[in-house]
Specification:
Elements: H1 3-10, H2 15-28, E1 36-38, E2 44-46, E3 56-59, E4 62-66, H3 69-87, H4 93-114, H5 116-125, E5 149-150, E6 162-163, E7 166-167, H6 168-183, H7 188-192, E8 195-196, E9 216-221, E10 225-230, E11 238-243
Antiparallel strand pairs: 1-2, 1-4, 3-4, 5-7, 6-8, 9-10, 10-11
Helix pairs in contact: 2-4, 3-4, 3-5, 4-5
């Protein structure tokens, strides 16, 4: 018994019913199967104009792929999966019958175009996991809106060697805690300075405003430190501390004369 005959019986259809369905489909499309395109749910269509080398055509939210022995083998593997789902009660009877009739019609067209021996050879060596099925092309993603950079210079009356760009968003975050921080001994420079002797983030010249861009948020403000929370809405936030070098810290040891 040939592999193709086994295929028909394995999918639970009789050959006469498949022949009848195939003849209808063939007359509605074309005898030239080389120009037939098929969706993953086995809809068959012929297109009047196809660019040279084009194998996938998108239309009305569906992808039609040019029929080939490899694509037929992949569709056949999908039918085996569908049959298992049907037997397990996960695929309704009507849906299974529709797929079964469409596949047997497609099978007749494939045999006519490629021949049984050619299809059997592909089926025997085909591996579904190595086949790339048709898929809708994803829409190009829009570029994220860039936060406008504020022409921020602190201290404004000096020109230091290095400068770190600061966004308006970052300045607004620091503005929100400015009074609280300064009441606890923070200087304006420790909050807003974005110039330094060394390239950012080296040295201790750069202020809080340089560290709270993007998804960083400001947390608790104390005399010694200010919390910087990374990814507060991500479900797995992390917290760092921006320390004030102008006040004593636990790790600082006072040098006795």
């Amino acid at each position: 018994m040939s592999l193709l005959t086994t295929m028909i019986r394995h999918l639970g259809t009789d050959a006469s019913k498949a022949d009848s369905q195939a003849s209808i489909t063939a007359s509605e499309t074309s005898e030239n199967c080389q120009s037939l395109f098929v969706t993953t749910n086995l809809e068959i269509r012929k297109f009047a104009w196809v660019r040279v080398g084009e194998i996938d055509i998108e239309q009305n939210g569906k992808v039609f792929r040019l029929l080939s022995p490899e694509y037929f083998a992949w569709l056949r593997s999908r039918m085996v999966t569908a049959q298992a789902a049907h037997k397990a009660g996960k695929l309704p009877e009507d849906a299974w019958n529709t797929l079964r009739q469409r596949f047997n019609a497609l099978q007749e067209l494939a045999i006519r175009e490629f021949g049984k021996e050619s299809l059997q050879e592909v089926l025997q060596s085909f591996s579904p996991k190595n086949y790339r099925p048709p898929a809708l092309r994803s829409e190009p993603q829009e570029k994220p809106v860039e936060v406008p950079r504020k022409d921020w210079i602190y201290p404004g009356n000096q020109a230091w060697k290095c400068k770190q760009p600061v966004t308006s968003q970052a300045v607004a975050k620091v503005d929100a805690i400015r009074e609280e921080a300064m009441a606890k001994g923070w200087s304006e420079a420790r909050l807003y300075q974005n110039q330094g002797r060394f390239r950012f983030p080296c040295g201790e010249d750069y202020g809080l405003v340089c560290f709270v861009d993007g998804d960083q948020e400001i947390g608790e403000v104390t005399e010694r430190s200010i919390e910087i929370i990374h990814g507060p809405k991500s479900g797995r936030p992390s917290t760092l501390r921006f320390y004030n070098p102008e006040v004593p810290q636990p790790w600082m040891k006072k040098v006795e004369d």
